[in-house]
Amino acid sequence: MISLYYWPTPNGHKITIFLEEAGVPYRIAPVDIGKGEQFKPEFLEISPNNRMPAIVDDEPADKDGPLSLFESGAILIYLAEKTGQFLPSETRARFRVLQWLFWQVGGLGPMAGQNHHFARYSPERIPYAINRYVNETNRLYGVLDRRLAQAPFVAGDYSIADMAVYPWIVPHEAQGQNLGDFPNLKRWFETIAARPAVQRAYEAGKHLQRERTGFTDEERHVLFGQTAAMVAAKRKEAPPA
Questions:
Q1: Cβ within 8 Å of residue 46, ≥6 positions away
Q2: N vs C: which end of the chain shows fewer Cβ within 10 Å?
Q3: Residues 74, 58: Cα–Cα separation, whole Å
Q4: Could you tell me the pTM of the whole model?
Q5: In what residue span(s) does the GST C-terminal domain sit (predicted)?
Q6: Is 2 helix (H, G, I), strand (E, B) or coil?
Q7: Looking at the structure, do residues 55 and 142 belong to the same domain, yes or no?
Q8: CA Rg, the chain, in Å?
Q9: Same domain flag for 43 and 118
């Protein structure tokens, strides 16, 4: 059984997509990031970066007790190797997948995340920051569109690269992007969205979603005001486990 520490965000959806596609039994342990549950000591033991997703595998291959992992890219690689699915073993094919996975975790995710922040969540509108990240997101969409003109999926065959990229394209309208400008990306996006496992993955977290028009001051401080001292203080405030 895989315990998935999760909230319905793009990075959280990556992991539910894999688990549903691979048919791996799992349970969701919600981590409400707006309430600061990512600072609980028991969660920090699993995810010291106080970010979700994270997993605990009760039955790792080495049979040396439960294995915990944080960082969505590392989790996808681990699950792919554990199940023998969605990550080829042949060298060239494997590294095609890994290079696009790292492209997402090092490029598309951070840039789209900053796009979301300055366009939707910042308490003040900063035109330079908004334009900077909307334009960089647009450039990355172009990279992806050109790649998908060459292959049906991001790395050739359907893989963990697609699972990593797709959730960051779902909010394309909020990112100021028009999929009609990227026909190959649009074709791929619609193909992924139609997969039953992807639909189940999004349904798995639907009950945790809540409508919001913005963040309260407290939520904004929890999500966007973190410092090393703040995390340390949160740990001290919590009662011993």
A1: 5, 54, 56, 68, 70
A2: C
A3: 17
A4: 0.90
A5: 90-215
A6: strand
A7: no
A8: 18
A9: no
The tens digit of pLDDT for each residue in 167-180 reads 999 999 999 999 99
Work out the end-to-end distance of the chain between its first and last CA atoms, rounded to an integer number of angstroms: 23
CATH number of the domain encompassing residue 38: 3.40.30.10
Sign for the CA dihedral angle at 99, 101, 106, 109 comes to positive
Q: Are residues 173 and 96 in the same domain?
A: yes
Residues 98 and 184 in one domain: yes
Claim to verify: residue 96 and residue 175 sit in the same structural domain? yes
Q: What dihedral do alpha carbons 72, 104, 167, 130 form, nearest 10°?
A: 120
Q: Which residues contact 82 (CB under 8 A, 6 or more apart)?
A: 57, 60, 61
Rounded Cα distance, 74 and 240, in Å: 29
Which amino acid would we find at residue 187?
Answer: R
State whether 71 and 33 are in the same domain: yes
- The reply to whether 80 and 98 lie within a common domain is no
pLDDT recorded at residue 70: 98
What tokens does 186 get?
A: 């649009």
Which stretches of the chain drop beneath a pLDDT of 70? 210-226, 228, 230-241
| CB-based contact 101:168 (threshold 8 Å) | no
CB-count burial class (<10 Å; 0-12, 13-18, 19+) for 214: exposed
Q: Give the per-residue pLDDT at 217.
A: 65
- Which run of H or E residues covers position 29? strand 26-30
Write out the two tokens for 39: 């600072």
Residue-number span of the structural domain to which 15 is assigned: 2-85+200-237
